[in-house]
Design goal:
Rossmann fold, binds 5-O-phosphono-beta-D-ribofuranosylamine, alpha/beta, two-stranded antiparallel sheet, 24% strand
Length: 211
């Protein structure tokens, strides 16, 4: 009998191109998972629209709809549990997760960051800021990192990284575009490794077990 597909709960705040890439990989049969629910703290995030078009439950959970931060975080957790999410995927989600959520999904939350962590990451480092910081520093290689999420921002064990060379005439926008292309491949690869039970966390290191 076929194993039950891994159920993904995807958290988004914006355009959702990573979400789209994941849905496309699932659709093409290249990722043994299913997007169970998409949640966004931004009511009109385009990512929600992408999910709805694909027939996936898409729920806006704006912070301002809840009297307290705790109530907001509880709602997120309830939606994830209500849709039986096995793995939480942060795909351009701009809020810091509550300790409760991180504890509830310990070792089962992934994030993607558009640089080679530990460079150009941490609080406030998102979007074009990341790429501008890489250009300002003058690095010759940037890239993308998929990592497990811990309570601190961008610090969890690294699952996969891909390098992207910086070109002399790069702007933050052109570098972002080439990094994004890699993001769209590598996130699904990381999720597939998780689905196959091939990620073994040993302290800060994530070992990839043979197939
Ligand atoms: C990506 O660059 C991702 O690395 C970062 O936020 C951006 C989200 O883009 N965490 P999108 O919404 O998936 O298009």
């Amino acid at each position: 009998m076929r194993k039950k597909a891994l159920r993904l709960g995807v958290l988004v705040s914006g355009r959702g191109s990573n979400l789209q890439a994941i849905m496309d990989h699932v659709q093409r049969g290249e990722l043994d998972a299913q997007v169970a629910v998409v949640l966004s703290d931004v009511r009109d995030a385009y990512a929600l629209e992408r999910a709805r078009r694909a027939g996936i439950p898409a729920i806006a959970v704006p912070r301002e709809d809840y009297p307290t931060k705790a109530a907001f975080n509880r709602a997120l957790l309830d939606h994830l549990r209500g849709h039986n999410a096995d793995l939480v995927i942060l795909a351009g989600y701009l809020r810091i997760l509550s300790d409760e959520l991180v504890d509830a999904f310990q070792g089962r939350i992934m994030n993607i960051h558009p640089s080679l962590i530990p460079a150009f990451c941490g609080k406030g480092m998102h979007g074009l800021r990341v790429h501008q910081a890489a250009l300002d520093y003058g690095v010759k290689i940037s890239g993308v990192t998929v990592h497990f999420v811990e309570k601190d921002v961008d610090t969890g064990p690294i699952i996969l990284q891909r390098a992207v060379p910086v070109e002399d005439d790069d702007t933050a926008e052109t570098l972002a575009e080439r990094v994004l292309f890699q993001e769209h491949q590598v996130y699904s690869e990381a999720i597939q490794l998780f689905a196959e039970g091939r990620l073994k966390v040993e302290g800060r290191r994530v070992r990839i077990l043979p197939a």
